[in-house]
Amino acid sequence: MKWARARLATGETQFGVITGDMFEPRSALGADDAAGDPMSVADVTLLPPVVPGKFIGLWNNFKAAAEKNGNEHPSHPLYFFKADTSLSGPGARVALPQSAGRVIFEGELGIVIGKACRNASLEDAAEAIFGYTCINDFTSLDVLNADPSFPQWTRSKSFDGFGVVGPVIETDLDWRDLTVTVLVNGRERQSYPASDMILTPVQIVSLLSQDMTLNPGDLIACGTSLGARPVKAGMEVDVVIEGIGSLGVTLVEPGAA
């Protein structure tokens, strides 16, 4: 089932389910009860499908990238937070501030939490996962590495619009079957199997829940693999995961977003 969040022609924001080319409003994310008549997807504007209380990203969670970079496999998620104001959705225009310097895309699979969990077992963690979405975790390399005494993970990843999410949350798929692909101006620049993860989604959720309570709507980016590279204003960047969809944005100069 594909869950979305959309702005209607009335200006109202509504959760719903996408079936074919129709958007069926629901009272809340995951709710069974209808909240209006179905309407064409063409008549609504898709937004980030969730507004997370916590937007968590992982580093060094893919075997191929770890091997190339000479990194050990972590036994616990190596994570950072992205600011809530970094959130953007399908079709967004993402400004690249001058202070960001060199910026790279990072196509990723995202986990959406559906129920609160703390100190969760693997079984409980599996039940807490609502579904999966596409994420583009834009990162300023210049900011990240500007101070050798302190890698600035949060700052480098929290510029407005740098956390692109969508277009939907898919609840019925096996993450092991997925391939994360990134197209820049229509040309494939990144493609890797989700099955190459070091820590699996269930392990990620279980281990993170030992550190903090995870709440419904929290979002976890599973990390990226080989192929992330710099982008600049004027480029169109699409993260594509078959079964979830295509998440595209346009990069623009400051003030043009």
The major β-sheet equals:
12 strands, mixed
Q: Domains counted in the coordinates: how many?
A: 2
The end-to-end span amounts to 32 Å
Beta content? 35-45%
CATH class of the largest domain: Alpha Beta
CATH topology of the largest domain: Fumarylacetoacetate hydrolase, domain 2
Spans of at least 5 consecutive residues with low confidence: none
- Overall SS class: mainly beta
String of helices and strands: EEEEEEHEEEEEHEEHHEEEHEEEE
Range of helix content: 10-25%
Reported CATH architecture of the largest domain = Alpha-Beta Complex
Describe the structure.
With 257 residues, the protein is mainly beta. The chain folds into two domains: 46 residues, SH3 type barrels (Roll); 205 residues, Fumarylacetoacetase-like, C-terminal domain (Fumarylacetoacetate hydrolase, domain 2), CATH 3.90.850. It is 13% helix and 38% strand. The protein contains five helices and 20 strands. Strands 1, 2, 3, 4, 5, 6, 7, 8, 11, 12, 14 and 17 form a twelve-stranded mixed β-sheet that branches. β2 and β3 form a beta hairpin. α2 crosses α5. The longest helix has 11 residues. It is globular.
